[in-house]
Amino acid sequence: MTGSALPSPAQAPDALPAVLAPVNDDLDVVGVRFAEMLGEAGEHSRDLVRHAARFNGKRLRPALTCLAARIAGGGVTDDVATVAAVVELIHTATLVHDDIIDGAEMRRKVATLHTRWGNHAAVLVGDVLFSKAYHAAAWLDDPFAARYLSEVIGEVLEGEIHQNQVSQDPDVSEDEYRRIVRGKTAALYEGALVVGAHYGGGDEKLQERLGAYGHHLGMAFQIVDDRLDLTGDEEIVGKSLGTDLSEGKMTLPVILWLRDRPPREQESAREWIERAWEQGDDAKQLARELRKSGALARADEAARSEIELALACLQSVPAGPEREMLETLAAFVVSRAS
Questions:
Q1: I need a labelling partner for 316 at 20 to 30 A (CA). Which of 17, 100, 103, 267 fits?
Q2: How far apart are CA 63 and CA 25, in angstroms?
Q3: What is the pLDDT of residues 286-315, one digit of tens each?
Q4: Angle at Cα 160 formed by Cα 158 and Cα 163, nearest 5°?
């Protein structure tokens, strides 16, 4: 793959493990470090933390960290493995908290923590995972990860708070939606690549370009994820679906559908969405309307536009198999909605 042309879905592997197979050895090293961090949990939290570790399925973010380090020329050193594991700990902590907020019952085809042990315990386990991430980053000789990732975590949490504050607000705009997605999702994608490039010895320019790629990849991933919440197969996606509607979240397909209603239909469309929030109507019913109106197709196009921007960011990145993997990941993200 060369240039910034967007790959077709046919060019993308149909499963993330196939995309990441070339870095499996790196991910195994990261997995050992991840397990070591979790093994330090206290006796009262150990079983719950181990259960949370079962959500560590896709390993996409630590793979991005490893790829960035390799592109920078430093390879996957002990420090790179540590920061990759820290990124995955942060991600796992956010999943635990997200599941509580969403009321999700399944994650990676496993019962969520709050389903088994209750909300109180699940919140605390998420906090434990954050603390493990801070602790591991703080012990690195280079303090960059501790400083930088603490800012990233703040941005992630700010995005989640923002989303909660506008729950069940039909007036959320596309710009506001994008600000929320930037915080809750894209910031950590960007961070995974920046810390990898930094600890791999890359200069600030490389960190900036790879970080920008990560931002756009994360934006596209969340747009597609929101689409799959309405139209996906729970067995394939591996988590509870339909939670966005039940939680009153305004996702891009719904925002575009409401925005493009003729003036005479605006009030009735808003009332329809509000009834769906209140009554928990089937997400599939809404999905049919969104597909018929073209809103799903427009959301898909927005994701593809983000991927085009991500690919453009790679043009000044050294060519090689690692950059090709980043291009393949971009194709995979948009193929998920096909």
A1: 17
A2: 10
A3: 788 888 999 999 999 999 999 999 999 999
A4: 110
- Rounded Cα distance between 194 and 197, Å, is 5
229 contacts: CB under 8 Å, gap ≥ 6: 241, 242, 243, 244, 245, 251, 283
Dihedral sign, Cα of residue 203, residue 195, residue 57, residue 299: negative
Can you spell out the DSSP letters for 216-282?
A: HHHHHHHHHHHHHHHH--HHHH-B--SHHHHTT---HHHHHHHHTS-HHHHHHHHHHHHHHHHHT--
Beta strands in the chain (DSSP E): 106-107, 110-111
Which DSSP symbol is given to 294? Answer: T
Amino acid at 311: L
Amino acid letter at 329?
L
Parse the chain into domains and list their residue ranges. Answer: 9-335
Cβ atoms of 61 and 91 within 8 Å: the answer is yes
Question: Tokens at residue 218, please?
Answer: 């994360």
Beta bridge partners of 111: 106
3-state class of 107 per DSSP?
strand
Q: Are 306 and 194 contacting, i.e. CB atoms less than 8 angstroms apart? A: no
Q: Which residues contact 143 (CB under 8 A, 6 or more apart)?
A: none
| pLDDT tens sequence across 4-51 | 344 443 445 568 888 899 999 999 999 999 999 988 777 778 888 888
What does the pLDDT look like over 103-144, one tens digit per residue? Answer: 777 776 788 888 888 899 989 989 999 999 999 999 999 999
